[in-house]
Amino acid sequence: MTVLRPPVPAWGTAAPTPPAGSRLGRVVRVDRGLLTVATAEGRARLPLDPRLRDDAAPAVGDWVTVAVAAERVTEVLPRRSALTRTVAGRTSAAQVLAANLDTVLVVDTLVAHARVRRIERFLAMAWGSGATPLLVLTKADLCDDVPAAVARVAEDAVGVPVLALSAVTGDGLAELRARLAPGSTCAVVGPSGAGKSTLLNALAGGARATTHEIRADGRGRHTTTAAELHVLPGGALLVDTPGLRELELADDEGLDAAFADVAELLTGCRFRDCGHGGEPGCALAAALADGRLDPARYRAWRRLRAEAERTRQRRADRGAARRGGAGQRR
């Protein structure tokens, strides 16, 4: 086993107790065939036990057991939260980006106005993880009217604190640091070019991630290629995830929280099987008619709801096909 120095600090609170005869570790990074795992003895690159099932594949932030004698990861311990998306392409497979999180920092940029519909999608994923979302708007130094921009975004980020900051001037960083408690684990998610890697470097007080200037056409560039867990100077832990150009929700777990205003309106529908498409007695139709519900937000909710249902159906069909194939082989 190759041990990486210096010794690793505490890797998060709420650590589970490992089974007898094994050490507790936390996954810092996942590469092909090897995991970088932090234990009380230091960091090590370890292989997975070949007996682990494919559906038990570890993710960054997972707590795992390390066999003392065999020097390999033998078990992924139960997760208390998981940030998950559907993998890019027309598949229903779920990909866990990070596990055992307390907070998800949804990051977008104030340059050329934050994209509210995109933010809603990321917030739905964050709420669905089981962690608490916090919306961070970067590059405030390039925005002419920060309070107005924050107010515009906060109107649709129901129940989520919104912070504006600049990694260049340092404005807003102290408030964000104060929200990251020692021993807590947070993940940073957002589109390419939103300033996630720059934010990590500012919080860490030095270069931890590679950064690039935004492209001339305003689109972001991927700078982080693999998720990695970092320890910040204040003792909080932060998972830097790759920029997501394509984000499809893995399920509808976070929709009611991300669209809490819409979910509250739904309780007023006359019929339980209301399709919310303009049927008689539909509370959403009434809210659209009298201006209580923004039509764009309504369309975004319907789009994400339909997307989650398609993903659920594809996953069910895929499971049925696998079971059918297994039955034929028997």
How is the secondary structure organized here?
Elements: E1 3-4, E2 22-31, E3 34-39, E4 42-47, E5 63-67, E6 73-76, E7 82-86, E8 94-99, E9 103-109, H1 116-128, E10 132-138, H2 146-154, E11 162-164, H3 173-179, E12 185-189, H4 196-204, E13 228-231, E14 237-240, E15 248-249, H5 255-258, H6 260-266, H7 283-289, H8 295-329
Parallel strand pairs: 9-10, 9-12, 10-11, 12-14
Antiparallel strand pairs: 1-4, 2-3, 2-5, 3-4, 5-6, 7-8, 7-15, 13-14
Cofactor: Zn(2+)
InterPro entries: AAA+_ATPase, G_CP_dom, P-loop_NTPase, Ribosome_biogen_GTPase_RsgA, RsgA_GTPase_dom
Subcellular location: Cytoplasm
How would you portray this structure in words?
By secondary structure, the chain is α/β, with parallel strands linked by helices. The chain has eight helices and 15 strands. It has helices at 116-128, 146-154, 173-179, 196-204, 255-258, 260-266, 283-289, 295-329, and strands spanning 3-4, 22-31, 34-39, 42-47, 63-67, 73-76, 82-86, 94-99, 103-109, 132-138, 162-164, 185-189, 228-231, 237-240, 248-249. A six-stranded antiparallel β-sheet has the order 1-4-3-2-5-6, with no helix packed on it. The protein has a six-stranded mixed β-sheet with strand order 11-10-9-12-14-13, sandwiched between helices. It is globular and about 70 Å long. The two termini are 41 Å apart. Residues 1-9 and 209-224 have low confidence and may be disordered.
